[in-house]
Structures are given as structure tokens and as C-alpha cells.
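the two lines:
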Amino acid sequence: MFKEALAGTLVLFLFYLTVRRLWKRRPKAVSALFLAVLFFSCIANSVYNGLVMFPDFYMDTVNGPFRYGTFSGNLFAYSDAFMFQDEILFPILRNRRVLLDAEGDFYERFVSLYSEEYDRIRVTKQDRQTVRAHREDFDFCHPFTCIGIMDYVTEQIPESLIPAFEEEIYPMLYINTDSLKDQSHLVFVMNPDYSLYVMSEAYYREITGE
Amino acid sequence: MHRKLCTFHAIFAALCGILFLLSMFLNRSYFERIALDSVFSYQFRQLAALSLLFLVGLLFLLAVRTSLSPAWTVLFAMPVGICLWVFASMLLLLTGIPYTLFFTLAVIGLLLVGLYLLRQHTLAFKTASALSPVKSIRESAHLLLFFLGLIFLTASGFVYSFVSYDSFFYFVNYGHTLTILGNFRDIVGENSFTLTNISQFLPLVHSYMAFWGLDQAFQIQAFLTLNILTAFFCVLRQCVLETPVQGRKALFYTALFTLLLASSTSFLVASSWVLANMYCMAYIFFLFLPSLAGTVLPGEGTGKEAGRDSLLLIGIFFTALTLLRKDGIIFAAFFLVCFRSIELFSRRQLALLFLPASLAELWWLFYVRIVLNAGVTQASLTSIANNKNVFFILLIIAASYFYIGWGHSILLWLSRRLPRFCTPYVIMLFGMCCLMGVAFLKKADIIIDNVDFVIRNMFRYPSSWGISALFFAVLAVFSILHRPALDYFHFLWVGYALLNLVSYCLVDSKAFWVNWDDSYNRVLQQILPVFVFIMALKSLVLLQSDRPDHSSES
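prediction for all of em together
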């Protein structure tokens, strides 16, 4: 890259000498040239941005291009092509009362912090299996990265999760978004592998028959 | 009052208002499917939050009876409003008072009332020649209408922004959590990265929006971006009108440079990425503008009062920079040195305006290191409170005061004894080059790689600079066409770039990487609006074609 930089600097220096000579002899021509360069720069930048930057922002990474996400027209800090899609949980929790699985201690701090109110609910083994059986109803599925990276929302990581967390592998988060509309009560059911199922209370009652 | 402009801007505000109303219907479907909230209430809260921040800044500037022009008062309202919110928040959090919206607004309210009373006192002595607040508002009505349009536009949610890991972890989520816990103490743990690896300015901006029940502060960032562009246009036009270039030519020139800045890929990336770099870019630019009052713009303010008002703004923005990033104190110290070099203010005034920034930094270090004793078991090398960083921050503060007191005089004495081209700026650049030499001697491989990566990050396809870096290089050539010399303006961007390179290579011992998110690449982008502004100022001479054309002589 240094060779290219040196060549570029030399070209710029030659350009400088040429334009300076011109400036001394024909200042009006340089004035026009300068405005033309400015005008061309604006056009070229706009075309470049249109082709390369918009509508999505990509970053070249070791593992190939990575989409950083575009949040245009979005009121949430959320994008469906982003690595932290589980951020969607924050607007979901706001203003809602959560019934957290009595065995889901690990998620207690998170839920208590970000929901309007929260309570515990006893989930039987059979209910857990029923929720799992309805897996296809949970349209949102993404690793729960927030719980992994926000160290201030977890009291203590369970022993069994530590090796996975060190590898940056986090429990899965499943949300039944279709069941959320106009629902003020949510149920959070945790599986033995710490994956979390989020749904409205009405939906939970419906599938478990309670 | 500019009637014609008022009409245009009122139409613009009305159109943006319609867009704002339409956006609610467009956003409704996806919003209400997920959140238990009304999209109308949500977006009106966004509008109210933005308006309040702008209003607080405006009231503050009117309360201190600034002698800056009414237009400048409006241009600085939002940046100052954001600062007031953050400073009040920091005060509450550091003193252990519960961090709530009510208490923070109460602190700001008390400050405004205090300033109002002080203003009455000042009036009695008739020392200020500023316009009355009512007259100021009437004079700047056209710009206020324009900014109202911008508030509508940004509150619509149609803003271009993108996020990375740091955006969420350090700013959006952490800021939100601070509003729930209401203090730093409950967040500090074994790995308190949020307290030791970042500065607190941006999380507190996100806290402001979280207090309103909003998800993030992208809107504030988008507004600030548009504020930069508006300020760039207005102030550059003011500067151009000070020269023989007048009328449509002046307007065209100003518009072209503003468009160049707005369309450059590097500006788009820096301003849309939810990171502290964007706010640093904004505050570096807003720090640079008041320094023009009384130098390039003698008409802005009058005599000593212009200096006094600039002093206040510069003091606020120095503190903002210090609280924005761990290396913010370096940016502030650099500009302090530059202001001393052009003798913008007296030594005493300069020492005074750097004091709040220094005290804020020291208070934060004391709080993290002694009061909280925040531990970091990982990332201890990058912690703001580690011994090395504390030492360097103290060194920077001491060196800055030394430069104000004696350093500049020594440099002047030295430059008088050296060949003519050895101005204080050249000597300072030479000093930075020597430091780079020291870094090179210590670890040549890393330094070669670092410089290589800087070039790649600026010019390699696809780079965050796009093709704009190439055009900036051409502009730099044009800017030195008439008089190739390293003066104050050119030193601002050359010195900034080199000083930060030295700081990263020598102090941080950092290995750069080829990517858009390389720290130095982002720090370099922060100077962009200042750079383009300087290019515009320096190239102005090319437009003054009253020089005789010598083509016939050849």
C-alpha cells in the first residue's frame, strides 16, 4: 500500500505544480476548474453512496461482508438482519406485566428491570413440553445475546452455561409475536437448556388449557 | 425579520409536520404489533423530548444574554441543551442524588432561574449590548421555523442510522438501565466495562430518551447531524460575505461546500453510526465555530463581549468533549493549545475555560477509582481508571496548563531564533513527528502496519471514506494554491490527525486494523466538518477573480 500512497502523493504534487502555474497565469481558469471539481465531487459522492452505501450498510469483516443494519423508519433499536435482533425484547417488555417461570431465576433480574411488573408462575413439566411442541408458532428465534453481553443484568451465570458463554454461544430466545398485539400480560417459560419462550398469557392459557 | 425566508421556512416546517403525521400511520402497523403503546403517543413523546432539549438550550443562551447574533443562538441551542442535560445528570449521579427525569430537569431549571436573576443584575449595570430575548427570537424567527421543521423530520423516525455491538452494549441498553437503577453504584460489578471503558456522555443522552419511555436516541443524533449541516451553511455563508465574493456566487459556493460535506461517505458513516464519535465530531465543530467570532467574523458579537460569549460556549464544549470519550481530554487540550497559539483569549481566560473540563475528568476518575472502586478483571488495559491512563490524563492537564502559562512563550522565543519557516506550528508538528519516531524505534513493525492500515482504511475499496478521501486530497491541494503555508487553520486538521496518531501509537500502543470500525479511522472522521470548513475558507481566494489574467503575457 505504501507504493500506491507514494505514487498518489507524487501525482498530487504534480497536480499542485500544474495548477499553481495555471493560477499564476490564468486565475479565472483555476477558479472555474475549482468550482467544477467541487461540483463533480458532490455528484460523484452521491452516486457512490447510492451504489455502495444505501440502502443498507455493510462492513467487510474477516467472515465476509456483514450487514450492520439500517434503522430508517424504525422506532425501535431493531433490525431483522442484525446480530442483536433480541433487542426487540425491550419494546416488548415495556408497559407489560410478565409472569416468569418459577424455575427461571437466571432471567429474574432482566425481567424485573425492564418490565412494568413481574411475578412468578409455576410451570409444570407437561406445560413446558406443550410450549415446546408449539415451537412453529414462535416466529422470532434468535440467540439471547443481551443476556450474554449485558453483565449488569445477570446476577450469576449458571455453571452449566459458563463454557458456552465463553464461546459467545447464548441461549435461544423464541417469541410468538403474533400473540402480543394488545396483550398486557406475558409469560416467559424457560427450558432446561435455558432457552426462553415468550408469549402472551392468553396464548399460554390457550395451549396449556389452564 | 426576514419575511421571505420566514415564508419558505414555514412551508418547510409545515411539510415536515405533514410527514410527521403521515409517519405515524406508516409506523403504526409494525409498532403496535410489538409494543403495548400507541404509536401516536410514542411519536409525540419523541417530538416533545426533542423540542424540550432544544428549548432548554435556547433559554440558556438567551438567559446568559449572549451578544452573539440571534442566528448563532439558535444554531447552538441543541448542542448546549444536550450538554445541560448531561452535566445535570452527571452531577446527580456523582453526588448520589437519585437520577430521575424530575430531579435532572429541576437542576436545569434552577440553573436557568439563577442565570435569569443574574441577567437582571447584569442589566442593572448595563454592561451587555445584547439584544433582548424577545428581539432575538423575532430576529431569528426564520431559523426557528427551519429548526421546527427539522424536529418534525427527525421525530418522524425516518432517520438513517446504524448500530454495532458497542452502540447497544455501551449506549442504548446501558443508558436505559441507568434510568431504572438511578445510580452508578448498582451497575458496578466485577466487570464494570460501562463505567471504566467508556465515558458517560452518550449513555446519558440515551437515558434522556429512555426517561420519556422511548427506545433509543437516534433522533437526537439525526437532529445534531442536520444541525451541523445548517451551522456549516450559515456560518460559512457569513464568512464568505465578509469577502468580496457576494450575492449568488457566495450562495452557490456555500451550498456546494455544504453539499460536499453532506454527501461525503465518511460524513454519512460518522454521523449515522450510533457511537460517541458522532457527538465528538459535532462538538469539535461547534467548538471550532465560536473561535471564528472575533477572528474571521469580526461582526459576530462586539469587542470583548464576543470573546466572553465564545468563552462560555467553548468552556461548555470542552467539558462535553472530555465527557464524550476516554481520549476526549486530548481533543480538548489540542484545541486549547490552538486557541492559545492564535491568542484568542488571555492566558487567564484560557486557564479558566479549561478548568471545568479538567475538574469533570478528575472528578470522574476519582469517583470510579476511589468511590466506586470499580473493578475490571478483563480489559484492564483499556480501563480509564488504570494507573497508566490516570497518569497520562494528569500529564495532559498539567501540560495544557504549562503551555498556556509558559509553553507558548517558549515556542515563540524558539521560533524567533530559528529560520523563518519554523513557526510555532511547524515546531509542534516537528515535536509530534519526533514522538512518532520514538514510537517507531520502540516497535517498528506495528507502526508500519498502523500507517499502512490508516491509508487502507481511507482509500481501499469499500472504505468508510468512499471516494471522498480522494476529493478531500484534491481540495487540500487547492487550499494551499495561493499561499502554501502551515497556518492556524491548516494546523487544526494536520495537528489533530498527527497528535491522535501519536497518542494511539505511543500511549495506547494500539495495533490498528483494516476495517471501518478501526478506532483511529473513526477519530480521524471526527475532524471532517472542521476540515471541509477550513478548505472552504482557504479556497475562497480562488473565487476572488479580480486578479488580472496573465494569459496574454505568455
